[in-house]
Backbone:
């Protein structure tokens, strides 16, 4: 059997972090087993579904590298097929038209509430003939759920789960206007798409029993279920926006995370491989099995995600990082894009810069000085270092450095040390003011590395602005 998994988001909002983990687990399990990963957009809620949300889901999955093996299925486009199945169940005596009025349903709810029991349709139209139907009521179609015994699901994460059938009701599969309900659409689509494994959040576990009843009524094989625990916030409460339940585009655009770091972190939220923390995609595909996912909810921790992102930034290719932060730097400089010289300088400086960065937004901020043209802006500490620099220091630096024939770190360091010795200063008393005039900050990669990356002409131009100091 070829394993076929699916990710089936509703485009009523953007791809959030919990949905991204569900997609990742489905994608990894398909790759691990040599199967297929499919995508279905469950857009039957026409009032809340938007094209913008659909595009955001596609973009988010593409950014994470979780690409489907076939074209996406749009659920709303299949509504006629869903209705066809509902009517076939009526014809087979496994579903029925229900003519209960809104007033009757309200009465049922109020009675159940008064008696302290859950609301459950009482099946009053289960065996009645349509000839008894009252005028003016458009019927819904309800599934005849089993009345006796237990329904059992052997879940790959939750284990064996059992529900008494008398707890299930004859739920609606086709509304009065002829449109299918979520329960019907999901089952028909999963069957038609050949889904063998349904991997989703454990908030859908109760749905699984209702859906099993529909599979059984149609005589279809029930897929293997795996209901994964939800992600909680650091305080153990349900994940919310204040915890990090944001659209994936916020992690990409606003917070500066790399997709491989997001995937690695989400992978470890509920699944593990010994003490391994940094896990490549290839390793994840080799090691991942849905049966190894734990039953307990995981807690989202921004600090851990940020630290992991820093590891991936340090491992990333310098040119790729330069490409990723270029738009933010261009915005900092109020230009449309960087020129070729600026881009080359940025790439050269990336080795030192990325050792200090944990997110791309910080990397962009710390890199801006390399490509700034004209006078830098100085933070307060940098300005203090410049103001307190020994008299004549910058003139001496400009003069001695101008005579260097070979512009590399070792040669630069030798000259700067000689100037410090000649003025009877500790190296830091020279290097720190020098850092300030070259970077606008009191913190940067090694100052001699900075000077090599900037190049001789730019370094001298920046120092000479302070010769008179």
Residues:
């Amino acid at each position: 059997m070829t394993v076929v998994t699916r990710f089936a988001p509703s485009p009523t909002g953007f791809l959030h972090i919990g949905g991204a983990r569900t997609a990742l687990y489905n994608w990894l399990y398909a790759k691990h087993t040599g199967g297929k990963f499919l995508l279905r957009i469950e857009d039957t809620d026409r009032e809340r579904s938007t094209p913008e949300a659909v595009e955001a889901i596609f973009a988010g999955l593409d950014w994470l590298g979780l690409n489907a093996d076939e074209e996406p299925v749009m659920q709303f486009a299949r509504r006629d097929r869903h209705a066809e199945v509902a009517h076939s169940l009526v014809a087979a005596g496994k579903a029925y038209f229900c003519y209960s009025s809104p007033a009757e349903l309200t009465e049922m709810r109020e009675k159940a509430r008064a008696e302290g029991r859950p609301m459950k349709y009482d099946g009053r139209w289960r065996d009645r003939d349509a000839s008894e139907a009252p005028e003016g009521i458009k019927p819904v179609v309800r599934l005849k759920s089993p009345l006796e015994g237990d329904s059992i699901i052997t879940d790959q994460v939750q284990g064996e789960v059992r529900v008494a059938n008398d707890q299930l009701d004859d739920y609606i599969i086709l509304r009065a206007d002829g449109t299918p309900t979520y329960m019907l659409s999901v089952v028909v689509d999963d069957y038609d798409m050949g889904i063998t494994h349904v991997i989703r959040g454990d908030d859908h576990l109760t749905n699984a029993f209702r859906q099993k009843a529909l599979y059984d009524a149609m005589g279809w094989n029930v897929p293997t279920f795996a209901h994964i625990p939800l992600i909680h916030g650091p305080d153990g409460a349900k994940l919310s926006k204040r915890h990090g339940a944001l659209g994936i585009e916020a992690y990409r655009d606003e917070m500066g995370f790399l997709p491989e770091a997001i995937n690695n972190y989400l992978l470890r939220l509920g699944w593990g491989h010994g003490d391994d923390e940094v896990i490549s995609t290839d390793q994840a595909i080799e090691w991942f099995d849905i049966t190894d996912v734990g039953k307990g909810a995981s807690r989202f921790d921004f600090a851990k995600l940020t630290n992991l992102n820093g590891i991936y930034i340090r491992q990333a290719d310098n040119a790729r990082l330069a490409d990723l932060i270029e738009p933010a730097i261009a915005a900092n400089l109020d230009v449309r894009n960087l020129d070729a010289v600026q881009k080359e300088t940025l790439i050269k400086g990336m080795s030192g810069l990325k050792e200090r960065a944990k997110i791309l937004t910080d990397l962009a901020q710390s890199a801006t000085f390399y490509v700034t043209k004209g006078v830098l802006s100085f933070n307060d500490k940098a300005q203090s270092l410049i103001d307190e620099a020994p008299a004549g220091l910058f003139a001496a630096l400009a003069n001695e450095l101008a005579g260097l024939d070979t512009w590399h770190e070792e040669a630069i360091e030798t000259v700067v040390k000689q100037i410090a010795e000649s003025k009877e200063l500790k190296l830091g008393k020279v290097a720190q003011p020098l850092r300030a005039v070259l970077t606008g900050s009191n913190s940067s990669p090694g100052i001699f590395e900075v000077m090599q990356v900037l190049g001789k002409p730019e370094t001298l131009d920046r120092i000479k602005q302070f010769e008179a100091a």
In short: The CA atoms of residues 108 and 243 lie 39 Å apart. The longest strand covers residues 36-41. The first helix runs from residue 17 to 32. The two ends are 78 Å apart (CA to CA).
